[in-house]
Amino acid sequence: MDIIKHIVLFFISPLNLVILFFVLGVLLSKQQGCAAKTFKFASLFSFFLFTQPYFSDLLLYPLEHKHKYPNVHFNSEKPDYIFVLACYYSTFGDVPEISRWSECSMQRNIEAFKLHKMTGAPIIISGGNFLHDPDVNYSIRAKDYFLHLGVEEESLIITKIGSNTHEEFVSTAPYLRNSHTWVVSSATHIRRLQKLFSNQNYSALFFPVNHHTKGLLTPYITLPSSRALLNTEIAFYEYAALSKQALFFQLNN
Description:
Helix content: 40-55%
Strand content: 5-15%
Order of helices and strands: HHHHEHEHEHHEHEH
Distance between the termini: 21 Å
Largest sheet: 5 strands, parallel
Strand order of the largest sheet: 3-2-1-4-5
Number of helices: 10
Shape: elongated
């Protein structure tokens, strides 16, 4: 399974695909002139395409903007729990604590804190020992983060489990079952989370954060952008994860 995972991760990297096309073109240049030109052209074309922000916008739009941020207020129906999924916390290097939190972790945690202040509902924190330092547990670090924000300890529930979305979901099942939960995660993950919750008939309202696109589809062309390359990879990863989720669901039913 690890080999398959590494192969998939290789092919969802746009830069790897560009390099692969170019290398194939070079290797075939002495024997297959037409094939060599085709792969070299594919390398140049894919580089242009993958580095265009509009292309990554098109890929991310169905993931990030199909589900809109809920219109909630202080008089809305209160949830039983607020479930915030893990993102990343760096254990590498000599930097201040605040610099160890990734952008997506910061946005997810702040959004969960805001919803907690609005509703008073307990916050469920998932995430296990998947960091650079295997002895550091994400849930424990995130709990400390919320405590520093002023959240009472009795309002924090940690699972200490989960290295991916499915494992985090499973680790919180005892709380989610027969409850109404407000779920906070990155916008690209909401579609996958909705399927997990609907498959188990769990009641949830989803709060997307950490958007990579603005939701505008007016065509435009710019100079090559490294940010677009990264966003394209994020989109490829999520579509691969959705495909894996659909395959596993079919096999188990």
